[in-house]
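Anyone opening a protein record will find just a pair of labelled lines. With that in mind, the following record should read easily:
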Amino acid sequence: MDSGSPRKSGRKKRKTQTTRSYRRREQEVQALLRETDRKGKEEKVDYEARSLQFFHGNEDERREEGDSPVHETGGQESDEDSGGELAAEPSESPTQTFIQIDLQDPPLVWNQLFKQRHYYDESLLYRPSNTLHFQLQQGDVRLKDYQIRMLNRYQEQAKSSSNKLSSQLIAQLSEVNPPKFIMDTTLYRSVCHKEFKSVFFEPVTPDEFQGLPNRRCLKLSLKQLRFSLHPQLMEEHRLAQQLEDLFDVYIYQRKHRVCRKLREELEIARQVAIKLLASAGQDQTSEVKRQFKLTQQLRQRYYSESTAERNLLQRLLKEWAKLKELRRQQQFQCTRFQLGLRVIHPPDLQASYSAWKESFETDLAEVYREQLEVFYTRQRLWTEQRSHSRKSASQAKPPRKPQFDKIMANLRKEYDKAFKDPVEPFVEIMRLRADEAAARICIPGSAQLPKARNYFLKIFLDGEFVGQTRSYRLEPDLQITINECMGVLLERTLPENLNIWLYEKSTLTPRSRRLAQMTTPLLMNSKDDAVHEKLSFQTTSSASTQLAGDVYVFYDYRSAEGLGGEHNLDDVQRLPMALRQKLIPPKLRALPEASKELVTPRAPYGRIRQSMLPPLIFLEQQLQFCDIETLLEDRRLHLLRSRHQQRNLHTKQLRFVPALENEITEEEPLPDSHGLGLGQLLDQGTYWNPIDLHKHRGRKFIKLLYEVISSQSARRAKTLQTPMPLLLLAEDSDQATGWPALWRAICSVFQQQPESLPREPSVWSGPQPMHDLYQHYNVSLHVVRATGVPVRSRHILNINERRTSAGGDMSTSLFVTQTLMYSNVRPFVTLSYGQRLCRSRTAEGSNPTWNEQLQLQIHSQFGDLREDLKITLFDELIEPQYSDEASDLYQRVQCNWLGEFRVPINTLLVSRKFEGCIELSMPKVLVGYKRPLIDSVTNMSTDQYPEFKEAVHLWFYLSIEPSKGDLMPLHSSALACAEMPELQHYLGERKLELVQLLPQPQRYVEPLVCTAQGKRVCLTRLLDPIPLPPAVASGENPVEISCRFVSLLSQLRSYDPCQSFRGVWLDNQTLLDSTWCTVKDLGVLLCNYLLALGLECWLILGVACPHGECSFVLFRQPETAELFLVSPATGKRYQLQDVYCPLRRVFCLVGKHNIYFNIQTENRVSMTNFNLQDGSCWFPLFSRRVLAPQSSVQKLDYMYKRSNDLSQLQKHIERKIMKKISAWRSTRKTVWNRAFQPRLQEILSDMESLATFSRGRYDEPVYSEQLEQEYPNYRLYGFTLNFAYTNLAAISERIRTTCIHYNNDASVEFCVAVHLHAHVNDVISVWLFLMSMVPLL
């Protein structure tokens, strides 16, 4: 008791005075109040009294606290012992609880921190109203105010999720029964928010009615099978699978951008809180509290998500380091998982440091304000509690004021965990997709390991068998890449469950062993994206070996009409007119017919980026009196031009043409406006298909354009070579007209040669003369060897049948089986041009070697060299023929076409030679043959047979003689230039620097090129996002569809200087309207399409086989950041390290903002460094001081046109083929078997999607085996052909090259099927299926 009394007296003594620390903290609070309250009067109020008045409310509490002020104890106490619970008691004013802290000079956190003042918009605030925002059909029911506000709230919530309010919810909120229908004077309309697609039914009896049709196509995609528990499982497998799972989570976070969305929501919540605090009244305290509570929760969630993302990145790096160290220690690699790091250092450390400080300052002020609110709330509760129980012996300790330094230190720890340091670089992880040659797996002692097993999957829908996959061998990394898609057509009901059974294929017996079952419910996804499922499996405990793993499955429901579905306007089938007039009420207006006007496609949301720069407009276009369309429609111009050409009998005798258009009488004959400048296209009485007419006019227009620009450049070059008068010299100068140009013209009078005018050594004055030197050419082909030649499938089946019937075992004669399988094909190579042909000797096996040189003599005029040199691969099939007598034995030789490679003769004349390895163009379906897969005969590993490739490759050397007579280039430097004189001078200086760095002078490409308008512009003006075709804009894989569309445009085959890099570059309007172009123009068009899709891409100018000077497209895959090369002529995609890429040399890379020249000594593309930031490898033409021109010459508002009807053209092609084959077989009777045609048409309908989405790879479909199984009584041989449509003569030439009509069997029958796939602007993909059938006796 004695010890307690002095303690009481000491406490009472501290009540009468304040300590120094308390006064110092109160001065800090007053400093904050002076910064925030600028409108207050300058009155000298006591600091303690003003603080208590602001934070503690009314006068009574302040008076009570004035009598007994609160002081803190002198000892150090913790936060846990200093206060009670946080109360949620509402106060009278928001200023009593909430503090607004504005950090200004001097800063409170750091002497270097600053904060930028923000200005906010009041439109972000949600203000509830008592007016219903939508129309509600509820009769005479009057809703109350709270019901209206609740309905508005649910309506806004449904809009955010793109849904509609249900009738049950509306009825529940409005407290009335939901109506079933609404009655009107004329119509009965049911109340339903779902829009149904109408279905027309013919009248049937109730017994025959089976329900509403629900046709859907279920697409199942089986991607990968991975084993996590296996007898061959090693530590490296476990680490690689764990890394793969972590990387999937990392990619998911990067794709959804969770932290970025949380940061944006946090900024919005802060803005709303500041606005509420500024305009808060006495009745809005709870709203302010709620908003600050939401801000705190968002900030904490943002910290936790950022910390989790940062920890995931650190864990990925640690696990990847462990995996690399394990591979180094064990000195072998059994998995293919590879990761790559992309480290980006901050470009501006000061800006990064300032942004970090601003964010830290904002969060610190917010946290400090929250701690002050908690402190003053606890202090008020403690004061009230002490005033009510003054006589109580035990009292709680007073709360302590939060320490600013401690709060800042804790926040700094959270920042270090969640966010990176300002000087820390940005690290991005990418998965490297290495090819098989670079990532070959090598395991020492693999001979002692057990043989690899073969596994396959069976698919069941609600217990009903659907299909199964092919059998796959388990790779050493315990993964199986399946990549198979199955389509299931559902008629009435949708399945509920998907069951997948895992089977192991036995190598000894035909029976397979079932291992595990996986089951998952099939969900209907509301979005268009596919559902991704990861199904886990584990074998039962009774199995001999324990297996466990995962299967990756994608599935989605699609429309049964195909990719277009109901969105494709060409697939809409209208009701008959009589039925439509009967069903549609007479008051309603009939629907308009389908318009045939121009169609502008709508680009996908978020993909195309509109260019902010205006298009490039030449000066003569701005000064012209009228546009070109008005000029072409002028009747007087038609008469004058027709009279000048002297081609029309009615107009060439005209002596007078009226000066005004209205003076021309209707009796005056007018020439055809469509044929203006194109000559006479149609003869009298000749029928032309609209598509053929379009192709013919487009080709003739491009040829006329080349002739006009060539003659213009020759005329200007000749003018520059001759002395000119003063004014003409100033006018024809490329520099801008004015006083400087006049001064240069005056100076040129006193000089021999003006330096500003370009000079050419010689002038090309039109077409070259047809000398006798160019009429005889010798083409030499040295063919070395080939790999991957298809083998005969029918021969293998006969071998298996004979061995099965004899009772022999395949394993006992494995060597004989392999020898027969890969030697049953006897290939040879032919070189042909027109009607002339030479062939090599016959080799044996799927990987033949010839090492033979072929010579072909060509005798033709110089202007007639327009066809292609064809390197064709055939199989020589020798069949024994028996006569009536047993002693007579004959042999019949048949040549089966396997593939070809076409070389344009004009590119060979320019390049003089092509050498290396080429990939033959193989048909997608080759009936009677199959790919040489070793696993179809034995279970030996494919690593022992590296010569088996996915495509057929041929090693060759092709040259042409004589080597003289080079074509003179186009003098494009003599044409007018649209660029500024300063830019031309800068390019000349950079050219002098570049020539000294180039290892080969041929790599230099002139950056100023000629366009279709006859003006020279910079190469960067050719690249700009342009409108996409409708199929690309609405397709699922826009990159593949774009490549396919560009590859189907017609390519010119002529020996013309306008087709080189110094020639004419077409814009998108000229190219797409005519559908004719060169390979370099295809690259520009494809690059612009990829830019419209939002991809990072460049245009590569170089030399390729067989196109010579051409352009490729280099783009970066967004998911993996990997670079790919795309050939615009074929649409195929190649990796940078692919040795089979047709691109031989790289001259330069053209981007949207710069041009990079290749200054590396390495010529091989697979060894070229494509790091554009490396100054030792790439020379940038433009710099930060001089930027590249940006305004584009492309037509940014181009409108595509629908293609014409293809039904008549398809019949013409089929009739033409049958007529030609019958004519070629003049000595034999040609029998056409139409029973096969529906099956062939069904196969061709799937070929376009297979060719588009297979990325140009030679993937053997299953159609060949299906045809052989469906028709076992025939010996079948056939193939598919695909090419872009130009004319009927080109189709006949391609079929004649295959030599299918040379089959001299007496009982042979033929079948042909034609399928046309139309794109916009009459770009047509032609698919042909030719088959010969011989009945088996």
